[in-house]
Amino acid sequence: EVQLVESGGGLVQPGGSLRLSCAASGFTFSSYNMDWVRQAPGKGLEWVSYIHSRSAPIAYADSVRGRFTVSRDNAKNSLYLQMNSLRDEDTAVYYCARDSGVVGSVDYWGQGILVTVSS
Amino acid sequence: SYVLTQPPSVSVAPGRTATITCGGNSIESKSVHWYQQRPGQAPVLVIHNNNDRPSGIPERFSGSNSGNTATLTISRVEAGDEADYYCHVWDSGSNHHVFGSGTEVTVL
Question: Who's near A115: CB < 8 A, 6+ residues apart?
Answer without folding.
Answer: A9, A10, A12, A18, A20, A38, A83, A86, A90, A91, A92, A93, A94
